[in-house]
Amino acid sequence: MTVCLTGCAEPSGDFAARLLDWYDQHGRHDLPWQKQVTPYRVWVSEIMLQQTQVGTVIPYFQRFMARFPDVHALASATQDEVLHYWSGLGYYARGRNLHRAAQQLVEQHQGQFPRERPALEALPGIGRSTAAAILALSRGQHEAILDGNVKRVLARHQAVQGWTGEAAVQKHLWMLAENLTPAQRVADYTQAIMDLGATVCTRSRPRCDACPVATDCLARAQGLQSSLPTPRPRREQPLRQVCMLIIQGPEGILLEQRPPTGLWGGLWGFPEVASTDDAAAWCQARLGVDPQECHAMEPFVHTFTHFRLHITPLRMWVQDPAAGVMEGAGRVWYKDTAQAGLGLAAPVARLLKQITQEDGETNGSHGEMRNAG
Questions:
Q1: Catalytic residues
Q2: pLDDT category, 217, cuts 50, 70, 90?
Q3: Same fold flag, 15-145+176-200 and 239-371
Q4: I want to staple 271 with a disulfide (CB 3.0 to 4.6 A). Which of 76, 241, 245, 346 is the partner?
Q5: Where in the chain are the domains?
Q6: Model-level pTM?
């Protein structure tokens, strides 16, 4: 595999200086995690920003900080509550890992963030680039990062070919990132190169005329801005099918907590069956009653990174379910989407909101929730 196009050259020595000059004038300086900077706040923001746009993250970060202002508050919370504050951000393993890492920081490091990158990388959900970002942005330590924005800037500037997820390409990009990171103003440089990728060297329609390092950008010189970085090889996304049972009884809507790992791990959702044909049998086996009424809602497709999920929601009404249905943990009767502090997958929250809108205020519900068991 060819990593670099013919003519690939080492960046000029003033790359960092040009980038810092641009950052001083045009960079982002008022993001919430840039205020009252601590390793904890940087860490939470970096995890939230993985696969998620800044504009989406800001309100989540602010709510999260208001509830979990430090690592001790996060570590002492329940996973349910953490996932509730994560609901809607997606990629829920990030929230679970954040919670586990906070507990390890308290148990193994007295709530302090290690100053060595390998020790940070040993925590759940923290890779090399995230660990480097924590140290560079919060403490100014000389660490190079390589997130998606940085990969795009470097791949274009040096015309690095090949999908950035391939080992040889990653190794080359890491070498460039390390060579370019200056000894001084490391935090500013780190934010600057991320800002450049986010606001100027964007995925589509990069604004090369506004780029401080455009004069020696090889992609620009060769007209390759639209083709670099090399896209990930396309793979057909399989389509899976599921029927979500929206079971409504006198106490509300039945929700179950999903297993701690896997799809939507630890979140709350509707019982699921393979098809609508299995719905009545599920009610008989689990609730001891037949549904009085069934109503199919509009199916929709929810897209994940590696597959698409075709969801058929089926509303069902039951009376006097067997008492044993609520024995033990893991089930609740859910009545109010606004006040119940549960972590919900995006499709589940969407359907609950839709049902609330369709039904209006029912049974004088004011956020009441009965825990299973």
A1: 46
A2: very high
A3: no
A4: 245
A5: 15-145+176-200, 239-371
A6: 0.78
Token pair recorded at residue 39: 């390793």
Burial bucket for residue 194 (CB in 10 Å: 0-12, 13-18, 19+): buried
Tens digits of residue pLDDT in 294-325: 888 999 999 887 889 999 999 999 887 765 55
pLDDT at 369: 33
Tens digit of each residue's pLDDT (9 = 90 or more) over 84-127: 999 889 889 999 999 999 999 999 999 999 999 999 999 999 99
The dihedrals phi and psi of 19, each to the nearest 5 degrees, come to -65, -40
Q: Determine the average pLDDT of the residues in 138-148.
A: 97
Residue 373's pLDDT is 30
Q: Does the domain at residues 15-145+176-200 carry the CATH identifier 1.10.340.30? A: yes
- In 3D, which of 28, 4, 8, 24 has the Cα closest to residue 16? 24
Q: Is 205 left (phi over 0), alpha (psi -120 to 50) or beta?
A: left
C-alpha span between 113 and 61 (Å, rounded): 19
